[in-house]
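sorry for the late reply, my laptop died twice this morning and i had to redo everyting from scratch. anyway the thing you sent over, i finally got around to it. pasting the sequence first so we're on the same page, its 200 residues, then the predicted structure underneath. double check i copied it right bc i was rushing
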Amino acid sequence: MTPEQLRARLARAEAQVIDLPGNAPDLDMHAGDAPVLIPSAVLIPIVLHAEPGVLLTRRTSTLSKHAGQVAFPGGRMDPEDADAEAAALREAEEEIALPRSEVELVGRLPDHITGTGYLVSPVVGLLRPGIKLVPNPEEVEDIFELPLSVVLDPSAPRRESAMFRGARREYWVWPHPTQHIWGATATILLNLANVLRERS
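ok and here's the structure:
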């Protein structure tokens, strides 16, 4: 897929509200209570190699929340963040030393609500190859890529299930030789795939 095709398909991404199996989270709240969602943003960096790849991180294993999990660069929105784009760029700079000037913002995906009560706004950006990235050891243990060809393959994502708090929960998983890509990150990748894939 060329950069021009990526830009064109992502330009209309926000208009495509995608209903995915397992996309509705099980929020911890009493019956009748409206959830209090925490605004946050993530950057979905697509690196424009000859064969593009989606850049992901693995969180440091010593974190108090989501330790060792695969994630996009991102986090809670701060009061000084003007919008989700500003928050995603700030977090990416803090977590992996990605200069804001090196990111070409090309669109957003539909917001995603996590089971832990976060309202996540996914912001998509294009990166040229060869940018030196340095993981912040307090937050990020590893930086790697998932080939865009895998994201575009309809047979790649699979459903798995596990017991959680006494109930069986299903979730999406993406194949990778060394990383376990699941949960909210996997669902956001599925939204990206639906936006980018050709439709008949």
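The first strand starts at residue 38 and ends at 47.
thats about all i looked at so far, will dig more tmrw
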